[in-house]
Design goal:
Low-confidence stretches: none
Number of strands: 2
CATH topology: Arc Repressor Mutant, subunit A
Shape: globular
Order of helices and strands: HEHHEH
Number of domains: 1
Oligomer: single chain
Amino acid sequence: MDDVVVDWKVQLYTLLAALPRDRVVSYGGLAKQLDGVNARMVARAMSSLPAGSALPWHRVIRSDGHLADHDGAVEQRARLLADGIMLQGNRVPRRYFL
DNA sequence: TCGTTGACGCTAA
DNA sequence: TTTAGCGCCAACG
Protein backbone atom coordinates (compact mmCIF):
# COMPACT_ATOMS: atom_id res chain seq x y z
CA MET A 1 0.00 0.00 0.00
CA ASP A 2 3.05 2.23 0.09
CA ASP A 3 2.50 2.83 -3.59
CA VAL A 4 -0.58 4.89 -2.80
CA VAL A 5 1.43 7.12 -0.50
CA VAL A 6 4.15 7.58 -3.10
CA ASP A 7 1.53 8.31 -5.75
CA TRP A 8 0.08 11.47 -4.24
CA LYS A 9 3.55 12.79 -3.56
CA VAL A 10 4.45 12.28 -7.20
CA GLN A 11 1.29 14.16 -8.16
CA LEU A 12 2.20 16.89 -5.70
CA TYR A 13 5.63 17.33 -7.22
CA THR A 14 4.10 17.29 -10.70
CA LEU A 15 1.67 20.07 -9.79
CA LEU A 16 4.52 22.02 -8.25
CA ALA A 17 6.71 21.67 -11.32
CA ALA A 18 3.83 22.87 -13.51
CA LEU A 19 3.23 26.00 -11.45
CA PRO A 20 3.74 29.23 -13.48
CA ARG A 21 6.87 31.18 -12.48
CA ASP A 22 4.93 34.29 -11.49
CA ARG A 23 2.36 32.47 -9.37
CA VAL A 24 2.25 30.98 -5.87
CA VAL A 25 -0.09 28.43 -4.28
CA SER A 26 -1.07 27.61 -0.72
CA TYR A 27 -0.55 24.28 1.03
CA GLY A 28 -4.31 23.83 1.14
CA GLY A 29 -4.63 24.78 -2.51
CA LEU A 30 -2.36 21.92 -3.50
CA ALA A 31 -4.05 19.55 -1.05
CA LYS A 32 -7.46 20.19 -2.63
CA GLN A 33 -6.13 18.91 -5.94
CA LEU A 34 -4.93 15.68 -4.35
CA ASP A 35 -7.53 13.19 -3.19
CA GLY A 36 -7.28 12.33 0.50
CA VAL A 37 -4.55 14.86 1.20
CA ASN A 38 -4.74 17.79 3.61
CA ALA A 39 -2.59 20.89 3.98
CA ARG A 40 -0.62 19.43 6.85
CA MET A 41 0.49 16.48 4.72
CA VAL A 42 1.63 18.86 1.96
CA ALA A 43 3.61 20.85 4.52
CA ARG A 44 5.27 17.72 5.81
CA ALA A 45 6.17 16.70 2.26
CA MET A 46 7.78 20.10 1.72
CA SER A 47 9.81 19.88 4.92
CA SER A 48 11.16 16.51 3.83
CA LEU A 49 12.41 17.75 0.48
CA PRO A 50 16.21 17.88 0.07
CA ALA A 51 17.72 21.36 0.50
CA GLY A 52 18.98 21.54 -3.08
CA SER A 53 15.75 20.31 -4.65
CA ALA A 54 15.00 21.60 -8.16
CA LEU A 55 11.31 21.81 -7.29
CA PRO A 56 9.87 25.33 -6.76
CA TRP A 57 9.00 24.63 -3.13
CA HIS A 58 9.40 28.33 -2.35
CA ARG A 59 6.15 29.07 -4.21
CA VAL A 60 4.14 27.11 -1.64
CA ILE A 61 2.93 29.47 1.12
CA ARG A 62 0.19 29.71 3.73
CA SER A 63 -3.39 30.45 2.66
CA ASP A 64 -3.29 33.89 4.32
CA GLY A 65 -0.37 34.88 2.09
CA HIS A 66 2.28 34.80 4.80
CA LEU A 67 5.48 32.85 4.36
CA ALA A 68 5.82 29.86 6.67
CA ASP A 69 8.33 30.25 9.48
CA HIS A 70 10.95 27.55 8.93
CA ASP A 71 14.68 27.02 8.30
CA GLY A 72 14.45 27.81 4.59
CA ALA A 73 12.30 30.93 5.02
CA VAL A 74 15.12 33.34 4.19
CA GLU A 75 16.02 31.47 1.03
CA GLN A 76 12.35 31.16 0.14
CA ARG A 77 11.91 34.94 0.35
CA ALA A 78 14.98 35.49 -1.84
CA ARG A 79 13.78 33.01 -4.46
CA LEU A 80 10.33 34.58 -4.63
CA LEU A 81 11.87 38.00 -5.21
CA ALA A 82 14.11 36.47 -7.89
CA ASP A 83 10.94 35.16 -9.58
CA GLY A 84 9.58 38.69 -9.75
CA ILE A 85 7.08 38.29 -6.92
CA MET A 86 6.90 41.56 -4.99
CA LEU A 87 6.50 40.77 -1.29
CA GLN A 88 4.77 43.14 1.11
CA GLY A 89 6.76 42.60 4.26
CA ASN A 90 6.48 38.88 4.93
CA ARG A 91 3.32 38.50 2.85
CA VAL A 92 2.55 37.67 -0.79
CA PRO A 93 -0.32 39.80 -2.26
CA ARG A 94 -3.43 37.84 -3.25
CA ARG A 95 -2.98 38.66 -6.95
CA TYR A 96 -0.05 36.25 -7.07
CA PHE A 97 -2.22 33.33 -5.96
CA LEU A 98 -3.05 30.75 -8.60
C1' DT B 1 -0.08 1.33 21.33
C1' DC B 2 -0.05 6.11 22.74
C1' DG B 3 1.08 10.96 23.33
C1' DT B 4 3.31 14.76 21.12
C1' DT B 5 4.54 17.49 17.22
C1' DG B 6 4.01 20.48 13.21
C1' DA B 7 6.88 24.74 6.58
C1' DC B 8 -1.62 24.34 7.97
C1' DG B 9 -6.75 26.11 7.46
C1' DC B 10 -10.81 28.25 8.98
C1' DT B 11 -13.58 31.21 11.87
C1' DA B 12 -14.53 34.59 15.38
C1' DA B 13 -13.32 38.71 17.82
C1' DT C 1 -5.36 43.55 9.50
C1' DT C 2 -3.90 40.73 13.32
C1' DT C 3 -4.36 37.27 16.86
C1' DA C 4 -6.26 33.28 19.29
C1' DG C 5 -8.49 28.97 19.43
C1' DC C 6 -9.73 24.72 17.64
C1' DG C 7 -9.77 20.90 14.15
C1' DC C 8 -7.23 18.03 11.23
C1' DC C 9 -4.01 13.82 10.46
C1' DA C 10 0.46 11.53 9.36
C1' DA C 11 5.15 11.03 11.33
C1' DC C 12 7.99 9.97 15.16
C1' DG C 13 9.90 8.42 19.63
